[in-house]
Amino acid sequence: MFDALSDKFSGIFDGLRKRGALSEADVGEALREVRLAMLEADVALPVVKDFVARVKERAVGAEVLEAVSPGQQVAKIVHDALVEALGGEGAVPLNLSAPAPIPLLMVGLQGSGKTTTSGKLALRLRTRERRRVLLASLDTQRPAAQLQLAQLAERAGVPSLPIVAGQTPVEIARRAMEAGRREGFDIVILDTAGRLSIDAALMEEVRQIRAATSPVETLLVVDAMTGQDAVATARAFNDAVGVTGVILTRMDGDARGGAALSMRHVTGAPIKFSGSGEKIDALEEFHPERVAGRILGLGDIVGLVERAAETIDHDEAEKLATKMLKGTFTLEDYAAQLRQISKMGSISSILGMMPGMGQMKKQLEGANIDQSVFKRQQAIISSMTMKERRQPDIIKASRKKRIAAGSGVNVSEVNKLLKQFDDISDMMKRVGKLGQKGLMRQGLAGLMPKGMSQPRGQQKRPW
Questions:
Q1: 306-447 sits in which CATH class?
Q2: Is the dihedral of CA 156, 161, 167, 168 positive or negative?
Q3: Which of 43, 89, 266, 374 is an S-S bond match for 342, by CB 3.0 to 4.6 Å?
């Protein structure tokens, strides 16, 4: 999401680092570039003005102009200002300390991902907070909206309020709260209707629902891809009903990131979650300091580790690692490894969380790499017999044709997978032979196939 802004900031700070000592004019010029970069990223003008003023106040002080590494010092000041603009240190949790059933009111425009986000939030509260959640659709405007929420509730493993034809949104809201009290639910998520644009009827409906249910949290769901429109939506809802938290959707899209940087300033409410993709578990806590790190190309190692911890089966991962080192790694094990990796998300999103990998991420996107490659490889392996998975050497021409036909790919795809598997197997065998001491002594060169390691004296020096 923040790729364009991240690239601009990287260029600005690289220029500052090359200059060594900085004058006040240097800082002023850099801040003009920061201002332009933020405006191009669709950050609201008042936010940009406030941001640049705060950075300038800190950056023209003696501690920067006389610092040993002034460029790095300015980068640190910009990082801290970004964290403040995004909401301060640490994620802001939902308020779940009220008496049950706790009403959570979901508001926003049609198409913002409000209903999908309601399902994602229900799953998160059920699995992480161990709460009994009831989902209720108050959307009587959009055809099949209530049915959509019922299907999402089933995927999230929570009940949804039965549909009663002819009821008004306020009547449905009251019935949901009564059901919550009667049936012992901890939380009731009220998914309100949206409109294609803000109008008086929409705001009046939300006000009536809010008066009838007294929600503990009023969560505004906005599409981060809509830029300044998202900011206008946030301002309108906040003025009309008051917002206690924001959930940004489509954070994995190609938007310029301005909405995220503007939300806190416009509403005064923290961004509590961010969503990416349609998967029911694709909802994450919003950590301002981590997002600031991504914008400045510092990555988000903590987030990456957390994602790995949530998605990877550690016992299975240990078994796979042992097999790889012993040289008993099969195509069946390779398929299991692909499943583990694909659970973590796209290659692009993983690289975006790793420090200094912005350039590689850009190269991968420029190369137009098909993100569905893992699924295709899993399909190819699924079309093999058990014997073929365990003894890939027996897969000759006729078997390759059958496997390709069964998985809907060309024979060349099957050959590519087998070659990739052979390369991994060979490398793992070399790791096993070298051992820990040998690996430390020879480094990566010891793992490379013969003829690929550079002769001594021709290796690139790090300076």
A1: mainly alpha
A2: negative
A3: 374
Lowest mean pLDDT among 200-214, 341-355, 369-383, 438-452: 438-452
Cα gap 180→190, rounded to integer Å: 11
- CA 416 to chain centroid, in Å, comes to 30
d(CA 410, CA 116): 36
Where is average pLDDT lowest: 53-62, 64-73, 154-163, 336-345? 64-73
Of 351, 355, 390, 135, nearest to 252 by C-alpha is 351
Mean pLDDT along residues 258-276: 83
Cβ burial of 367 (10 Å; 0-12, 13-18, 19+) is: exposed
Beta carbons within 10 angstroms of residue 396's beta carbon: 8
Tens digits of residue pLDDT in 243-264: 899 998 887 665 556 777 788 8
Say if residues 313 and 95 touch (Cβ distance below 8 Å).
no
In CATH terms, 102-293 corresponds, of 1.20.200.10, 3.30.43.10, 3.30.420.10, 3.40.50.300, to 3.40.50.300
pLDDT tens digits for 10-46? 777 777 666 666 677 777 888 888 888 888 877 888 8
Which residue's structure tokens are 């014997």? 387
Give dist(CA 268, CA 291) in Å, integer: 18
Q: How far apart are alpha carbons 168 and 174 in whole angstroms?
A: 10
Determine if residue 56 is left, alpha or beta; phi over 0 gives left, psi from -120 to 50 gives alpha, anything else beta.
alpha
What per-residue confidence (pLDDT) applies to 90?
Answer: 76
- Give the range with max mean pLDDT: 12-21, 193-202, 439-448, 451-460: 193-202
Instruction: Please report, for the chain, the start and end positions of each structural domain, with discontinuous segments joined by +.
Output: 3-86, 102-293, 306-447
User: Which residue in 454, 328, 304 sits closest to 390, CA to CA?
Assistant: 328
- Give CA–CA dist 381/375, Å, rounded: 10
CA 38, 39, 41, 42 dihedral sign is positive
Pick from 215-229, 254-268, 369-383, 449-463 the range whose average pLDDT is largest: 215-229
Q: CA angle, 278 as apex, 275 and 282 as ends, to 5°?
A: 40
Q: Which residues pair with 245 in a beta bridge?
A: 219
**CATH architecture assignment, domain 3-86:** Up-down Bundle (1.20)
Output the six-digit token pair for 288.
């301002």
Q: What is the CA radius of gyration of the chain?
A: 26
Extract the tokens encoding 34: 């920061």
Instruction: Specify the pLDDT at position 444.
Output: 37
